[in-house]
User: What shape does this take?
Amino acid sequence: MDTIVQENGKATLPRLNQPAPLFEAETTHGTLRLEDFQGSWVILFSHPADFTPVCTTEFIAFTELAPELKKRGVELCGLSIDSTYSHIAWVRNIEKNFGVRVPFPIIADLNKEVASLYGMVMPGESKTETSRCVFVIDPKGILRAMIYYPLTTGRNTQEILRLIDALQATDKHGIATPANWKPGEKIIIPPPRTTEAAEERMKAGYETADWYFSKRAI
Ligand code: BEZ
Assistant: This one.
């Protein structure tokens, strides 16, 4: 188990572009460690509680998204502060009531060990439930993105897919993506960091509005 990073005696949130906190946890698919996912992208996400309606809609949405994620080499892993028995019963209930079979593991984080490592509990919202957090971890185990939503707002899984597409395009092409970017649209060339590079950029032949703003197709 990784140690919790502390600043001024308080647990801190994990940091982007640093190794994701390591864990070993009991899940609906048996004991899993973060390292078991090495080589795949991982979406580790928390939900407040089993047998709650917004969470149920999210689990259906994540299950519907799973085939698209698989095509992109992404594994899902859920988490809440509920027992494995509760998770099993809820997943069976979702299948019975909604005809949706949840394919990914769900961590039973009864002692909040993983939730603490990732800062998933927001005491201002609830001391006994995890907020709606999403952590995107790359195949090398580096934390690449975090999303935090409140208890009352279900997440947009299309946005999570868009985030994966943007991160993978960034890694493949060394680029950045503009607001609301979708695959097939033009990307942003990261801005020059020296005056010389800025001069060069104006002559580079990209679609350039000014020295700091260039786009191209990929
Ligand atoms: C829900 O999933 O429906 C929910 C959970 C916690 C607070 C509010 C709604």
Notes: The pocket of benzoic acid is lined by residues 48-49, 52-55, 151-152 (CB under 6 Å). The chain has a mean pLDDT of 95.
